[in-house]
Amino acid sequence: MSTGKGDISGWLVRRSPRPLWWGLLAVLGVTVAHAARTAPDGGMDNAIVVGAARAWLSGRSPYDDPHFLYLPGAVLAAVPQALLPESVLRVLVPSAVTACLAAGWACALRLHRVPLDSRLAVLGLAGLAAGFAPFGHLVRLGNWTATAVLALPPALLLMRRDRWTAAAAVLGAALALKPLLAPVALLFVFARRPRALAVLVAVPVLVSGACALLLPDPAGFVTRTLPFLLRGDDAFVRLYEASPGAVLPRLGVPPLLARGVALAACAAGVVCARRRWCRADPGPLRLAETAAGLMLSAFLVSRPSYDHYLLVVVPLLLAGLPYAGSVARRPWFWLALVPQVPGLTWPYLETVRRRAFKDAMTLCALAVTVACRSVPRAGPGSSGPEAGARERRPPAALAPTLGEKSSEPRPRSASF
């Protein structure tokens, strides 16, 4: 897609007027206030982790609760919350989750060299908060997926600056709390960074091992949580899972066949992510789209797989909107997000327990859209060598700031 002075990308990367910032603050404030009113304990998911910390403080095993699916490091990380009253948690937790999502969005923008005071920075975050249902779900639940949303963009930013070991340390710290970003380890394999991969593995292993020694049941994650995750037979959890392996049996597909379909889709997604990485075109899209492909492939087969997991990849892809050929410029990206528009009622899917069907539609559509980026197309707006040249030339406002180290060529003009 050719761009010029009239292209919307130039408008998006310009400085945002002050009224838009006030609108963004209003949207985020309303989101936090609503969560504080509806979740007096700081959110159901956060309450599970805090309950595990309180169980440890009282001498019991945190893994007595089968819904506590985190590594031992999360127990100690939740101890400060366990010492606070619920009146504080009901405001602190949604505020902290919102701050994590906003910080992750800011790092995603910096990965794509989009100014933090741009219109895209304001409208993108406001659109996610007001127009993407998983954003509100994550804030109300207080789920620790927010740590993964916060960790992935800065890790990719460090990779773009060729600081792979530091990126591995950031991802390892996130894995020590919740192993959601484990599929990104394949990115280190693709890039042939064995030393950084060793750091990525060592950080959560050492932290989890040290924290497990402080628990009354040191092997609880291995003996209780892993079997629970592998079985995936919790009737309550299954109603909200978005992976094909959980949704297809609800439509009458034999469970074994559904698992086979999910595994095949995951394998195909990993192959496409590998091919996307091998297309070594310049610019940040290579890192962002390869990581997104790996994460979406894992979500297709993981148990559980919830709607708020999509926040790990959607902001990362949306921040690439100013670049020609990006996933966010494809119509299927936006069509995939339609089921997640708040207030849109779908026939036969009105109840909360059937929301997983909408989530599965979005997950599968996004996975296919990102996977298609591994196949270069010829012609204007394509992803081939000519598109790579356009990715090398973002708007002038997206150029690295003075003093920032970058191995990418500096743009010569304001066109793509």
Task: Please characterize this protein's 3D structure.
This protein has helices at residues 8-12, 18-38, 44-57, 72-77, 79-82, 86-111, 119-131, 133-141, 145-160, 164-177, 185-190, 194-212, 220-231, 235-238, 244-247, 255-278, 285-301, 314-318, 331-337, 355-371, 385-391. It has 416 residues and is mainly α. The longest helix is centred in the first third of the chain and has 26 residues, at 86-111. Residues 1-6, 379-393 and 399-416 have low confidence and may be disordered.
Layout of SSEs?
Elements: H1 8-12, H2 18-38, H3 44-57, H4 72-77, H5 79-82, H6 86-111, H7 119-131, H8 133-141, H9 145-160, H10 164-177, H11 185-190, H12 194-212, H13 220-231, H14 235-238, H15 244-247, H16 255-278, H17 285-301, H18 314-318, H19 331-337, H20 355-371, H21 385-391
Helix pairs in contact: 2-6, 2-7, 2-8, 6-8, 6-9, 9-10, 10-12, 16-17, 16-20, 17-20, 19-20
Number of strands: 0
Query: Which stretches are low in confidence, meaning pLDDT under 50 for 5 or more residues running?
Result: 1-6, 379-393, 399-416
Q: Give the class from helix and strand content and strand pairing.
A: mainly alpha
- What is the C-alpha radius of gyration, as a whole number of Å? 21 Å
Order of helices and strands: HHHHHHHHHHHHHHHHHHHHH
Average residue-wise pLDDT: 86
DSSP summary: helix tally: 21
* Share of helix, binned: 55-70%
Strand residue content? under 5%
Biggest sheet, open or closed, and with what strands and sense? none
The first-to-last residue Cα distance is 9 Å
How does the overall form come out from the CA principal axes? globular
